Amino acid sequence: MAKEKKLVEAITSMEEDFAQWYTDVVKKAELIAYSSIKGCMIIKPAGYAIWENIQREMDRRFKETGVENVYLPLFIPESLLQKEKDHVEGFAPEVAWVTHGGMSPLQERLCVRPTSETLFCDFYKDDIQSYRDLPRVYNQWCNVVRWEKETRPFLRSREFLWQEGHTAHATAEEAEERTVQMLNVYADFCEEVLAMPVIRGQKTEKEKFAGAKATYTIEALMHDGKALQSGTSHNFGDGFARAYDVTFTDKDNTLKYVHQTSWGSTTRLIGALIMVHGDDSGLVLPPRIAPVQLMVIPIRQDAEGVLDKANEVKDRLSKVCSVRIDDSEKSPGWKFSEQEMRGIPIRLELGPKDLEKNQCVLVRRDTREKMFVSLDEIETVVPELLETIQKDMFERAKAHRDAHIWDATDYETFKDTVENKPGFIRGMWCGDQACEDQIKEETGATSRCMPFHDQEQISDVCVCCGKPAKKLVYWGRAY
Amino acid sequence: MAKEKKLVEAITSMEEDFAQWYTDVVKKAELIAYSSIKGCMIIKPAGYAIWENIQREMDRRFKETGVENVYLPLFIPESLLQKEKDHVEGFAPEVAWVTHGGMSPLQERLCVRPTSETLFCDFYKDDIQSYRDLPRVYNQWCNVVRWEKETRPFLRSREFLWQEGHTAHATAEEAEERTVQMLNVYADFCEEVLAMPVIRGQKTEKEKFAGAKATYTIEALMHDGKALQSGTSHNFGDGFARAYDVTFTDKDNTLKYVHQTSWGSTTRLIGALIMVHGDDSGLVLPPRIAPVQLMVIPIRQDAEGVLDKANEVKDRLSKVCSVRIDDSEKSPGWKFSEQEMRGIPIRLELGPKDLEKNQCVLVRRDTREKMFVSLDEIETVVPELLETIQKDMFERAKAHRDAHIWDATDYETFKDTVENKPGFIRGMWCGDQACEDQIKEETGATSRCMPFHDQEQISDVCVCCGKPAKKLVYWGRAY
Q: pLDDT tens, A279-289?
């Protein structure tokens, strides 16, 4: 009983301590366990099932655009990593090094991949000969390692799971097109499946990926008003191709460098889900990503006919959604708490009184709204309700996000906004990295992106230095 | 054109040099590429698509038995690895060691997981408290590293992909039941999906997994008469639980050790597929695992109506099978060679003369049998033909396997059989490891298993030492 009690204990409230609330939820919803390897987490069944759903749906969307999956090695020889100067500078400080194989020291150190641009270049160098071999649009689902100092479950860990796409193209235009296309795949996935609105835009020079010509990003707003980078897509131009000598013979019989892109999204999306939709009772999962969409909970299950009917209802619903029944010996109240903690979108309650009336009670996890539904209609009502919940969750998250976008046209307002109004801050920028550095140092906010779909000129001058402004930037404190 | 020519060049024949034939096929069917990390391979799209199909179907079968997926860390602290004596002795000589994270040496070396028993024990130690928490039936799909000296694509590489199941149970009986159950899941999968007959049995003490009480195995016979271990399932009893202190409070309120199992299968199954079914024209894939089941190849595709009709046929067939069309500018002959090299089960040819007769030509990859089929009937004929091919491939592999099982009741016959008759050798064994050692040293054959379904006493004495025999063993040279 001790174990059950723990689960229904009140978790820290979001208002009181958002960071602690997050930690409580990932543990009590049984998404993760801590391992004895510092900074590496264990993803438990309830967490991994969400990742499987993310993988399945994202992979389907990738393949619709012509992506093929491959698998490249875990290790990168030190000499290979070092060929692209910016890239190695960006990653070398945070990689894990393998120095021994079995009982013997290695002739050359191998780094555990933090990302695989170098390996894909090394592969493409031989794999691509002619324009007929292009484009290459490959992706892999795998683990990567970055030796972070501060770690948090899902958001930042020394090992994490992700997908990394790596493409090679004959022209710069095609590479740019693919970079934007994949950013849009991420954005659509987040909005349509995770019910999480995102800002699509470009990273500044300071914030772009090590070795990229341009980095595009989707930025989401968490419930506490901090931003979370939720997916990035990079255009490398021919920079890596030149460093790794990846060439092809074009139609005109001349040798050219390929143009490359890469794009990645990670298990951190699970962290985003938690922080966008969760509440003080735990996780709230959008129906399209929830491993279990409806939990049947019998009331007075010892009463005649209740358990039989509950099982019949479960079997019928299994044809239209992902459903489970909790017929354990816990009290209904405990079962409710568990179902709420796990974020299961709908609870179906069924007791002796409901049986008499040939009805059941449906309770929405997101709004706690209760409705009485005839048992004859559940196969139509439940799928519709799931769609309604999905839509409402997106609208609610979007309303919250939109209510937390602030404008600042002078530095005093900017500083005050960062301090007192959680959210994104729209502010003009001169294009000078010194201003980004100053803002970060003095306020903790970073440039999140230069948005694609919002290019309003809210002032003529940089919000930091007052010199002529070039670009509208979304700023914010971030995970 | 140079690239296309390479693909249709004759590969080495199986008879001439089976090892070279295998290498030619994995390369020319574009399953793998070699990487610049010695012993690590790159799995290309055609190879990875097979692995995705293996994963999808095996995972479905796992989940039907109650398996839940999780993810545990890539790294194992040296001290954790060392707690189970047999286990560390078995694996320490072949692990890769991480000694540095970023710029700093680690306080304790981390090994890159060669398998995860130790991590699961460390996890279960906290995760399991009461009999209510049992059984735990967890699995992970991941990469593992073993620092092998001799490597071959799919069969033995320093990094490979696999799944590893790890379970914990309240009783010894339940653990034994799960061990056998999962071996049967593997065996049924191999026979029903990969069309590959297997012998189910138990490993001897010498051949069992480091730290296991009992190891069960499925053994398949390759075309060259060598055996391939294709999946193993281990019963650990409470050995690991005692070493790692994994206990639970039972119903009677006493503290007990859990009983554990683990079971794994790997990308080596792709190697098995190649060596069981392949021929001198390349890969031959069973329909149920083939990423592409039918290739439409238009003949004289410039002739009026051919390409339109071929595309119409492709669209219609896409509702009943996995289909592609090759409308590239290569000659039909080249396209045939490529489709054969890639092992696509059915080729559909369609030319102007076929159009006139409202028919097409179907060619089976496995038998090269040609049949003329009315275009009105393709949606029924093709799925039936795929099922026929699947069944025939299994029967053919089984006939080949059964024709290569030999009996030996004395050592001279045994040695002669190993040398001159490729296949499994049935021979009685006294139970003494010295005989296994002697046989291995003198003939190169190892004990593959003590079969479950064949316990015939073919002689009273050990085939090696002549002392009283205890068990029938299947022996053979193996990959």
A: 999 999 999 99
